[in-house]
Write a structure and sequence with these properties.
A four-stranded antiparallel β-sheet has the order 1-2-4-3, sandwiched between helices. It has a domain of about 140 residues: NADH Oxidase. Helix content is about 45%, strand content about 15%. It is of the alpha+beta class. The protein is built from nine helices and four strands. The two termini are about 30 Å apart. Bound molecules: flavin mononucleotide. The site of flavin mononucleotide has 8 residues, from strand 3. It comes from Actinoallomurus liliacearum. InterPro entries: Nitroreductase, Nitroreductase-like.
C-alpha cells in the first residue's frame, strides 16, 4: 500500500462502469471484512453485498430523493456494500456470540471463559443502563469495520468510497433490513476510478498543529 499516495488523494467520486473487481479480490476483501474486530467481540453487523445491476438499482431506487447525487457512484461502482447494524441487542445475540466463541475454541479454560462472559455482560449493562448508548456503541463498531475495509481495499488496489448520503428508513425498506432486526448504518461503493474524472486539485485538511497535542 502506498501511504504517501493515499494521504494525498481524494476519495473516488466517479467509478469506471466497465471495470469489475475480480472475484478472488472481492472474496479476499470480504474475508477481511469478516475478520474485523468489534468491542467485546459483539459482532453486531450484517453486510449486503450488491454485486448485480439489479441490486445496485434497487439501492438507488431507495436512496431517497435528496440523495440522488450518489446514484451514479453506486451504479458505476463494481460492488456496493450496505453495512447494517443490529437495531437492538437481545440476550439471544449474546448467547450466539458466546456459543461461537466456545465452538471456535476461544477460551478453552472454562474459568477464563466464565470470567470473559461475565465481564462482557457487565460492560453491556453499562452501555444499556449507564451510558444508554448501546445503538450508538454498536454503530461505532460498524464504522471501524468501514475504515479498516477501506484500507484493505487500498491494499488490494480497489477504490472504496463511503457514502452517508442515503435515507436509512428507505434503504431498510428496500432490502427488508428491519425485518432482519438490523438497520442501515453506512454504504461502501467499491471499484476502479474513471481515469477521465479523477480530481487533481489538492485535498484540504487542517494543519498538524490544529490536530495534534503532544503531552
Ligand atoms: C463516512 C463518509 C461518508 C461520506 N459520504 C459521502 C456521500 O454520501 N456522498 C459524497 O459525495 N461524498 C461522501 N463522502 C466524501 C466526503 O465528503 C469527502 O471525503 C470530504 O469532503 C473530503 O474530500 P476528499 O476525500 O476528496 O479529500 C463521505 C466521506 C466519509 C468519510
Amino acid at each position: 500500500m502506498d501511504l504517501d499516495k493515499l494521504m494525498n488523494k481524494h476519495l473516488t467520486r466517479a467509478f469506471d462502469p466497465s471495470k469489475a473487481i475480480p472475484e478472488e479480490t472481492l472474496q479476499k476483501l470480504l474475508r477481511f471484512l469478516r475478520s474485523t474486530p468489534t468491542s467485546t467481540n459483539i459482532q453486531p453487523n450484517h453486510f449486503y453485498v450488491l454485486a448485480t445491476a439489479e441490486g445496485k438499482e434497487r439501492l438507488v431506487a431507495h436512496l431517497g430523493e435528496r440523495f440522488q447525487d450518489n446514484s451514479e457512484k453506486i451504479l458505476n461502482a463494481s460492488h456496493t456494500i450496505i453495512l447494517t447494524t443490529r437495531a437492538d441487542l437481545p440476550d439471544s445475540h449474546l448467547e450466539e456470540v458466546f456459543a461461537k466463541e466456545t465452538a471456535d475454541g476461544r477460551f478453552p479454560d472454562p474459568a477464563k471463559r466464565a470470567l470473559w462472559q461475565s465481564m462482557t455482560r457487565d460492560f453491556l449493562n453499562l452501555r444499556n443502563y449507564g451510558y444508554k448508548d448501546v445503538n450508538h456503541w454498536m454503530e461505532k463498531q460498524t464504522y471501524m469495520a468501514l475504515g479498516m475495509t477501506m484500507m484493505a481495499a487500498a491494499e488490494l488496489g480497489v477504490e472504496a468510497m463511503p457514502l452517508e448520503g442515503f435515507d436509512p428508513t428507505s434503504v431498510d425498506k428496500g432490502f427488508k433490513i428491519r425485518e432482519a432486526g438490523h438497520t442501515t448504518t453506512v454504504l461502501l461503493a467499491l471499484g476502479y476510478p474513471d481515469p477521465a474524472r479523477v480530481y487533481s486539485d489538492p485535498i484540504s485538511r487542517f494543519e498538524a498543529d490544529r490536530l495534534f497535542t503532544f503531552v
